[in-house]
Amino acid sequence: MNHKLLRMLNEAGFEFTPDIMAKLPAFENLVWLEREECAKAMDSLAEKDLYTNYFKVAANAIRARGQA
Fold first, then answer.
1. Structural domain count, the chain
2. pLDDT per position as a tens digit, 2-60
3. Which secondary-structure segment (H or E) carries 38?
4. What residues contact residue 36 under an 8 Å CB cut-off, 6+ apart?
5. Do the domain assignments include residue 45?
6. How far apart are CA 57 and CA 39, in angstroms?
7. Rounded Cα gap, residues 66 and 29, in angstroms
8. Is residue 13 part of a domain?
9. In a designed cystine with 42, which of 18, 24, 52, 58 is the match (CB 3.0 to 4.6 A)?
10. Domain assignment of residue 18, yes or no
11. Does the residue 49 lie in any domain?
12. Using the 8-state DSSP alphabet, how is residue 8 labeled?
């Protein structure tokens, strides 16, 4: 389980009941999918824009947030 995700849920006031804990992997996957869609949007902009490196850096930074 991603510790950042757990910390964010805790800060949002979620109580870690057995039911919620059982659903966390599915929620974590949804977060990962959304993050990847954001990174893909940056990749797409990089293909169409003069500031390619900036968009590539942004895409890599978005993906890196899921690695820690």
1. 1
2. 787 888 888 999 888 888 889 888 988 998 898 898 888 888 887 776 667 788 888 88
3. helix 18-48
4. 63
5. yes
6. 10
7. 11
8. no
9. 58
10. no
11. yes
12. H
DSSP reduced 3-state for 17: coil
- Locate 52 and state its tokens: 């390619």
Residues 19, 68, 66, CA angle at the centre, nearest 5°? 70
Q: Which two tokens stand for residue 42?
A: 């940056």
Q: At what angle do helices 52-65 and 18-48 cross, to 10 degrees?
A: 170
Dihedral (CA of 25, 28, 34, 37) sign: negative
Lookup: tokens for 15: 């109580």
Mean pLDDT, to the nearest integer, of 53-68?
81
Structural domain boundaries, residue 59 = 31-68
**53-to-12, 18, 33, 37 alpha-carbon distances in Å:** 35, 44, 23, 18
